[in-house]
Design a protein that fits this description.
Radius of gyration of chain B: 16 Å
Chains: A alpha/beta, B alpha+beta, C alpha/beta
Number of domains of chain B: 1
CATH topology of chain B: Alpha-Beta Plaits
Strand order of the largest sheet of chain B: 2-5
Distance between the termini of chain A: 41 Å
Helix content of chain A: 25-40%
CATH class of chain B: Alpha Beta
Number of strands of chain B: 5
Order of helices and strands of chain A: HHEHEHEHHEHEHEHHEEHH
Bound molecules: thiamine diphosphate, iron/sulfur cluster, magnesium ion
Number of helices of chain A: 12
Number of domains of chain A: 1
Order of helices and strands of chain B: HEEHEEHE
Helix content of chain B: 10-25%
Strand content of chain B: 15-25%
Shape of chain A: globular
CATH architecture of chain A: 3-Layer(aba) Sandwich
CATH topology of chain A: Rossmann fold
Radius of gyration of chain A: 19 Å
Structural class of chain A: alpha/beta
Strand content of chain A: 5-15%
CATH architecture of chain B: 2-Layer Sandwich
Oligomer: heterotrimer
Shape of chain B: elongated
Chain lengths: 311, 105, 397
């Protein structure tokens, strides 16, 4: 897609498009938007690996293809392993991998494919130090199979296997902190990002490109279908997730934490503001909301402390 | 750039997908998803008021399809072949230059 | 063509496999330790440590990941090798399908080992045979030499564009994997002449013309992809014979046949089996011949693709076939027995066939065992009828 030079100058994102229309994501899908951003950042010299997830469908049924970059579809649990193999082969074949002009190897996996079934392969990938970027697009449930809970589903959420009902059988565990698990591997670069803050996301993608070794980005990617939210509110919800400190933006670079909140001085908004736009939280009682709020506060304080001590 | 940038790609896909089956399910035309006109999914459609637009490009940035491109004068253009009518652009537009109206087909 | 002067080395089956991979100029190895395969990947690590090769070695965290990494590497365009056994192979199962469905010529050595529980590390073929429907070619080696030769040939066959399917070289736990024997190795220049660098069907490295691999296929397309794979496996038979013949012409060991017959000319009873136990069987055939039995042996080298035509030709000639299966399919019978019997159904060949389940979990299988089987088979032949089709030969009675 051509974009006039005059506009390119004014755009805050690269004008080049390597993610094409005609894909079959639901209306207002945050996963597809995230993938579009990734390809804007890395361009064509990229190999993307996608495991079983909504993005399998978004990328197109054979013989069609939404991406304008090399794409390998892989099994659900294998993203970390498959990008390790791709990277090893590129090196064996003499390619420069990562860095400004190197080939970018990108794992693009959902929260289920990362927090749950793919956690082991992710850990192996991180620990072995491959030059690749792993992006977990977090829509907080197994969407492709019809909205079941994942380790990354938050407290109080409705999903089809935490359906609420008479016995108030909602998700009763807090969101698994995959980013913390990742950081425990002491990799050179890990960050959270959000569809609502594309400039921040692209900056992080570029950093992930420059810094040698494995990088990890957890991208908050709203799913109107699974969250029972209006399709036009995807960005607003993603923004509120940050503003309430439910999903704070930060990065971990060579042992140092840096918080990247859009308005650092402001106190986080109450969690209700994030919850109220989404039907998946409608079964939560006041106590449930309070429980979630406390978790958010606790995690946020913890993060601030980390940034203070290891900033 | 008044023409949708995707038109040329559709021609290519049609030309080249007389194709034989490729072992390993290899798909050889990047971006060939454009043959799929997802505009038919739309219930509400974004209506654009050029006078109100300040060319901030938030609509362009946040469109998940993408179904918004930019014309010679740097204004957004909505590609109704692909716009699914999610309404994100309207929701994010700071000047209300986009409103969602029920589709009349 | 340079004159062939073999380099003789006394090595274990595992080292033979490692040398095979080295001489095949493998570029990526991703593997996970498991007895009795481990010394293959240790040896490869040693080659790297000694500066003998630049193989990219990925010490993955599981066999599922081992095969996934191999798949990623192979799709990118590299020549890829790995090795495993039993539990590891079972854990790989999902990815075995992925490798063949993606048409990637990965070569893997599987050291046949009985599956747990109860735990066992000893020889049995059920691990590899229960992967028979994954779209991998399977070659069963009788000795260390065949392990080495098998690895080299497997790459050439697998990478042939008419085939483009992964291949498994199967060796017996300990009996081959850890037993030292003389192996004639081929000088590197000559291996290079036989096995040129890989020319892949596709790669993920054409950045001007990017592709996608393995996307969702609707019912309208999936069926044809499977047909293509089935046809590739069918074509593999021809390629196996071509490559086996070429190997024989170059290096003196002929592999142009998918099965190997031993003294079957006038045989009344033929013992049929796979892998290292065929060494014992052949030895027993010599003994039995001296004792006046008209017996022979058939070694099934390639189990996938299955040597249908060859087995039919054989079955037309011999009155009785005793299949020795070091494996079992629950609810049915020995797997080689089952498959070879099935092959004959729509033919005019009607030998008497019996299945002897032997040596599960590494139970010894000796020349004497074959003699007992011969006597039992002889009786069957005299009666002209099979009463007990499947014999659990080794049961402690
Ligand atoms: C081994 C295996 N188990 C289960 C599945 C079924 N499956 C496909 S996608 C999926 C959920 C994916 O969830 P997530 O990773 O969060 O991605 P999303 O669909 O939400 O984008 C599941 C369970 C599978 N493909 N493979
Ligand atoms: S279910 Fe959610 S993640 Fe999946 S395509 Fe639809 S909106 Fe996107
Ligand atoms: S968001 Fe609104 S103001 Fe900004 S470019 Fe789009 S239409 Fe114009
Ligand atoms: S309504 Fe949605 S799909 Fe249509 S142009 Fe706006 S953001 Fe894009
Ligand atoms: Mg998900």
């Amino acid at each position: 897609m051509e974009i006039p030079e005059s506009v390119k100058k004014r755009l805050t994102l690269p004008a080049e498009e390597h993610f094409y229309a005609g894909h079959t994501a639901c209306q207002g899908c945050g996963a597809s938007l995230g993938l579009r951003y990734v390809l804007k950042a890395y361009g064509k010299k990229t190999i993307v690996a996608i495991p079983a997830c909504c993005s399998t469908i978004i990328a197109g049924a054979w013989p069609y293809n939404t991406l304008d970059a090399n794409l390998f579809h892989t099994a659900f649990a294998t993203t970390g392993a498959v990008i390790s193999g791709i990277e090893a082969a590129l090196k064996a074949l003499g390619y420069k991998v990562k860095g400004e002009d190197g080939v970018m190897v990108v794992g693009w996996a959902g929260d289920g494919g990362t927090a749950d079934i793919g956690l082991q392969a992710l850990s192996g990938f991180l620990e072995r130090g491959h030059d690749a970027v792993y992006i977990m697009y977090d829509n907080e449930a197994y969407m492709n199979t019809g909205i079941q809970r994942s380790g990354s589903t938050p407290y109080g959420a409705w999903t089809t296997n935490t359906p609420g009902g008479k016995r108030h059988f909602l998700e009763k565990r807090h969101k698994k902190k995959v980013i913390d698990i990742v950081i425990a591997h002491e990799i050179p670069y890990a960050a959270t990002a959000s569809d609502a803050y594309p400039e921040d996301f692209l900056r992080k993608l570029r950093k992930a490109q420059k810094i040698p070794g494995p990088s990890f980005i957890q991208l908050f990617a709203p799913c109107p279908t699974g969250w029972r939210s209006p399709t036009d509110k995807s960005i607003e919800i993603a923004r509120l997730a940050v503003q309430t400190a439910y999903f704070p933006l930060f990065e971990y670079e060579n042992g140092k934490y840096r918080i990247n909140m859009p308005s650092p001085k402001k106190e986080p908004k109450p969690i209700e503001e994030f919850l109220k736009l989404q039907g998946r939280f409608k079964y939560m009682t006041k106590e449930d909301v309070e429980t979630l709020q406390q978790w958010v506060n606790h995690e946020w304080e913890k993060l601030k402390k980390l940034a203070e001590v290891f900033g | 750039m008044a023409e949708s940038p995707f038109k040329a790609d559709i021609e290519r896909v049609k030309r080249e997908y007389s194709e034989k089956m490729t072992p390993g399910a290899v798909a050889r035309i990047p971006g060939s998803s454009v043959v799929n006109k997802t505009g038919s999914w739309r219930v509400f459609m974004p209506e654009f008021n050029r006078d109100k637009c300040v060319r901030c490009y938030l609509c362009y940035i946040y469109c998940p399809e993408p179904a918004i491109y930019l014309d010679e004068e740097n204004y957004p253009v909505f590609d109704y072949d692909y716009c699914k009518g999610c309404g994100i652009c309207a929701n994010e537009c700071p000047t209300d230059a986009i409103v969602m109206v029920r589709e009349t087909k | 063509m340079t004159e062939y002067k073999p380099i003789k080395k006394v090595v274990s089956g595992n080292y033979a496999a490692a040398y095979g991979a080295l001489h095949a100029r493998v570029q990526v190895v991703a593997a996970y330790p498991i007895t009795p395969q481990t010394s293959i990947i240790e040896k490869i690590a040693e080659f790297i440590a000694n500066g003998e090769t630049d193989i990219q070695y990925v010490p993955v965290e599981s066999e599922h990941s081992a095969m996934a990494a191999c798949i990623g590497a192979s799709a990118t365009g590299a020549r890829v090798f790995t090795a495993t056994a039993a539990q590891g192979l079972a854990l790989m199962h999902e990815m075995l399908h992925w490798a063949s469905g993606s048409r990637l010529p990965i070569v893997m050595v599987n050291a046949n080992r009985a599956l747990a529980p109860p735990w066992s590390v000893w020889d049995e073929q059920t691990d590899s045979l229960s992967q028979r429907d994954t779209g991998w070619m399977q070659f069963y080696a009788e000795n260390n030499q065949e392990v080495y030769d098998g690895v080299l040939m497997a790459f050439k066959i697998a990478e042939d564009k008419r085939v483009s399917l992964p291949a498994m070289i199967v060796e017996s736990a300990f009996i081959l994997s850890h037993t030292y024997d003389i192996v004639e190795m081929i000088p590197q220049e000559l291996v290079d002449e036989f096995l040129p660098p890989r020319d892949p069907l596709y790669t993920l490295t054409d950045f001007d013309n990017p592709i996608s691999v393995g996307a969702l296929a609707t019912p309208n397309d999936y069926y044809e992809f499977r047909y293509k794979e089935a046809m590739a496996m069918e074509r593999a038979k021809k390629v196996i014979k071509e490559v086996g013949r070429e190997f024989g012409e170059r290096f003196g060991r002929d592999y142009s046949q998918m099965i190997e017959t031993y003294r079957t000319e006038d045989a009344e009873i033929v013992f049929m089996g796979m892998g290292s136990l065929m060494g014992t069987v052949k030895e027993a055939v010599d003994v039995l011949r001296k004792e006046g039995y008209k017996v022979g042996a058939v070694k099934v080298r390639w189990f996938r693709p299955f040597p249908k035509e060859e087995l039919y030709q054989l079955a037309k000639e011999v009155p009785a076939i005793a299949v020795v299966d070091r494996n079992f399919s629950f609810g049915q019978e020995g797997i080689l027995f089952n498959e070879s019997k099935g092959v004959l159904f729509n033919t005019d060949a009607r030998p008497l066939m019996k299945d002897y389940i032997v040596g599960l979990g590494g139970r010894d299988f000796t020349v004497n065992d074959v003699r007992t089987i011969a006597r039992d088979m002889k009786k069957t032949l005299e009666k002209g009828k099979v009463k007990e089709e499947v014999v659990w030969y080794h049961l402690k009675r």
